[in-house]
Design goal:
With 89 residues, this protein is mainly α. The protein has helices spanning 2-6, 14-22, 24-31, 41-49, 71-82; strands at 55-57, 66-68. The protein has one domain (13-88). Helix content is 48%, strand content 7%. 12% of the residues are buried.
């Protein structure tokens, strides 16, 4: 009730999901991986397991060595993992 009086709404994940779909190249830019290379599944798993605000070390040799995990980066990695064909998992 107090939130309605102050005009603030609770943030849902819908906005983040729309942003992750709207800019597909931004995910690769955040990770530092060029378009012709595949995004490693181990990197996606490491991002998903980390908490937002943590800095993780990239377990593979592609892309940046250290990546700061944000909520948007976590959502983008979840969306990317869902789109991977079964033969690559």
């Amino acid at each position: 009730m107090v939130e309605k009086m102050m005009g603030k709404k609770k943030s849902s994940g819908r906005r983040l999901m729309r942003l992750s779909i709207k800019h597909p190249e931004e995910f690769r830019r955040q990770l530092g991986i060029v378009k012709r290379e595949r995004i490693p599944i181990t990197l996606l798993n490491r991002i998903i397991d980390a908490d937002p605000g943590d800095t993780i070390k990239n377990p593979t040799k592609t892309g940046k060595k250290h990546i700061k995990v944000t909520k948007l980066l976590e959502h983008r990695s979840i969306m990317a993992k869902k789109r991977i064909p079964r033969r690559y998992k």
